[in-house]
């Protein structure tokens, strides 16, 4: 008779660092994403890195892209080692459309396709509205909101328009009730939630699914270290 597992044994391991999991319990088929290609912004750390790891453990190749290439190179090595899949690290700033265009050209040259875009890159810190400079508010909107639009538009025009695909925007619940010290990030994510619906309506007919996921506080991440105690 199969041994029944406790709830704790069924839960994924709680990792406090950007190391890969030491064990992984499959919920979905191991081949769920076999030979697909996912482009994950901010995939070199935190939630983005874990998304890359789980996708790769289900047969996906990934591209992880952000500003710090050293961090991405290190992450890519770890991810490929645990999954046996390919992970391509690329340097981009989601505020600079030219850098995204060059990255997508490189992805299509290297893999010949892109199936999934995860808009995960973001910037945040705790700050009351009265202390927030004009540039501080703008910076977070630039990364979170314009960055999500820029990346979605480039991937759509270069590939999804003719082949379909899936976009997942990583959101947050900060704006739902107006959390203190978070007017910048809450406003940015609320705009992204609206953008998700607009693009789903406009791009659905081309076979593009656009969805958002709003996690609660996730331990072991930079977001949690910056905000978790509040
Ligand atoms: C107030 C700040 C600040 C702070 C920066 N600024 N940090 N203001 N409090 N802690 C201001 C600066 O003074 C400047 O304004 C403006 O913001 C831009 O700062 P830069 O350092 O020039 O920007 P940049 O180098 O582009 O860096 C972006 C950043 C940085 C967001 C400021 O922290 C970053 O790179 N973050 C990426 C990692 C990250 O934030 N991860 C957490 C994501 S968690 P002035 O006026 O002086 O020019 C998340 C949600 C979590 O998003 C939800 C949890 C529940
Ligand atoms: P994180 O590790 O700091 O992830 C953010 C990533 O974005 C970093 O890898 C960073 O890499 C990249 N990035 C920042 N600015 C960029 C830019 N201009 N261009 C390209 N890449 C950029 O933090 P996290 O906590 O895992 O957050 C990941 C996502 O989850 C974010 O969208 C966040 O809002 C969301 N979220 C987090 C939590 C949580 O509890 N942690 C809760 C709800 C939602 P570089 O520095 O190399 O650029």
Automatic annotation (TrEMBL):
One of its GO terms (molecular function) is 2,4-dienoyl-CoA reductase (NADPH) activity. Keywords: Fatty acid metabolism, Lipid metabolism, NADP, Oxidoreductase, Peroxisome. One of its GO terms (biological process) is fatty acid catabolic process. InterPro entries: DECR2-like (IPR045017), NAD(P)-bd_dom_sf (IPR036291), SDR_fam (IPR002347). It comes from the Eukaryota. It is found in: Peroxisome. It is an enzyme of class 1 (oxidoreductase). GO terms for cellular component: peroxisomal membrane. Gene3D superfamilies: NAD(P)-binding Rossmann-like Domain (3.40.50.720). It catalyses: a (2E,4Z)-dienoyl-CoA + NADPH + H(+) = a 4,5-saturated-(3E)-enoyl-CoA + NADP(+); a (2E,4E)-dienoyl-CoA + NADPH + H(+) = a 4,5-saturated-(3E)-enoyl-CoA + NADP(+); (2E,4Z,7Z,10Z,13Z,16Z,19Z)-docosaheptaenoyl-CoA + NADPH + H(+) = (3E,7Z,10Z,13Z,16Z,19Z)-docosahexaenoyl-CoA + NADP(+). The keyword Transferase does not apply. Its EC number is 1.3.1.124. Monomer, dimer and oligomer. Belongs to the short-chain dehydrogenases/reductases (SDR) family. 2,4-dienoyl-CoA reductase subfamily. This is Peroxisomal 2,4-dienoyl-CoA reductase [(3E)-enoyl-CoA-producing]. It comes from Astatotilapia calliptera (Eastern happy).
